[in-house]
Amino acid sequence: MDFKCSDVNLWKEALSSYSARIESLNKPNIVSLDDFYRNQLPPLIHQRNPNSYLTKTELSKLMQWKLTRGKWRPRLLDFVLSLDEALVKSASQKAFQSLPDISKAVSELTVLKGIGPATASAVLAAYAPDVAPFMSDEAMVAALGNSKDYTLKQYLIFVDKLQSKAKELSSEGDSFTPSDIERALWSSAVGAKMSDLKSVPDPEANSNKNSKRKRKR
């Protein structure tokens, strides 16, 4: 998916294939973790209004989701498991109350050990998908051309781009959030990767064909 693409139907198609792409990863618990992150966690957080917060258990599952959908880095999970419950609650509460000031919200969360801007973005996206998208590698590459810079400054540029794209695609009566844009980009990138893998010839299959040909001769 080219980020500059303005065809709403192509974006819808990419977004609607998200669940199938999640399943295609064939990773342990990815389907249930994704269901937790997208469908169960947001209402849990919002039930605690007006002082919404995240529990340590929820943050731990969110981190598992992030690492399973992306690159597995168990050390980050260890950091989360060693956090103080009260600290997780107060940091997330302050972060949610800081929105729509994304810079302040991320800064409130990154006081927690093991929580960088990318994980902070996942927390904010669970609470306010219409404001803050998750900072995934795939969406970063599509929107900014790289995914190596996980700074707050880079995230703010990323947010601005995805918010603008969501607004652009929503102008024709359809409704897209920045988080929809991120998922569509991720889905498209994973789909393209799978197509590339399928198109690479299997060297063993070719060698078997060649040996059969030789035997026939």
Q: In words, what does this structure look like?
A:
The protein has 217 residues and is an all-alpha fold. The protein has one domain (8-216). The chain has helices at 8-16, 18-24, 30-46, 56-69, 74-81, 85-98, 102-109, 117-127, 137-144, 152-170, 178-199, 203-216. Helix 1 crosses helix 11, helix 2 packs across helix 11 and helix 7 crosses helix 8 (117-127).
Q: How would a crystallographer describe the biggest sheet?
A: none
Portion of residues in beta strands equals under 5%
Stretches where pLDDT is under 50 for at least 5 consecutive residues are 211-217
Number of helices: 12
Order of helices and strands: HHHHHHHHHHHH
Helix content: 55-70%
How many strands appear in the DSSP assignment?
0
Q: Multimeric state of these chains?
A: single chain
Rg estimate, integer Å: 20 Å
Q: What would the principal axes of the Cα set say about the shape?
A: globular
Distance between the termini: 47 Å
Region (Disordered): 196-217
Protein name: HhH-GPD domain-containing protein
Organism: Nyssa sinensis
Task: Draw up the topology in text.
Blueprint: H1 8-16, H2 18-24, H3 30-46, H4 56-69, H5 74-81, H6 85-98, H7 102-109, H8 117-127, H9 137-144, H10 152-170, H11 178-199, H12 203-216
Region (Disordered): 196-217
Protein name: HhH-GPD domain-containing protein
Task: Output the keywords.
mainly alpha, disordered C terminus, about 0% strand, 12 helices, about 220 residues
Summarize this entry quickly.
This protein is mainly α and 217 residues long. Helix content is 70%, strand content 0%.
